[in-house]
Amino acid sequence: MADVFRDHQLRISGRTLELTDEGAAILGGMTKDEARRLLAEEDDRQKGRRRARTEIPEDHGDEEGPACPVCEGGEGYLLGRLGSRVHFRCRDCGIEWSSEGEAT
User: What span, in angstroms and rounded, lies between the C-alpha atoms of 67 and 101?
Assistant: First the structure.
């Protein structure tokens, strides 16, 4: 679900940083320091989301998987199956791929 209030704050932060210091003071509201802090927090939050998507779950098995088709040095671990397709993620680069047939 979208957070309308947070989205609005982020838009205001960007606009505040486009103003001169005098313009921001005249308009009142958020200071440039507050805008920078808010944008930095959002950047950290987005990085955390990206990191969480590529992390390997703790309870994942240690069985060997197929070699990564992109980095070729990484080993794929099983994400799951859908029909006859088997889906993997590389332990090194995080790329996801799928193939027909059984997991190796």
Answer: 16
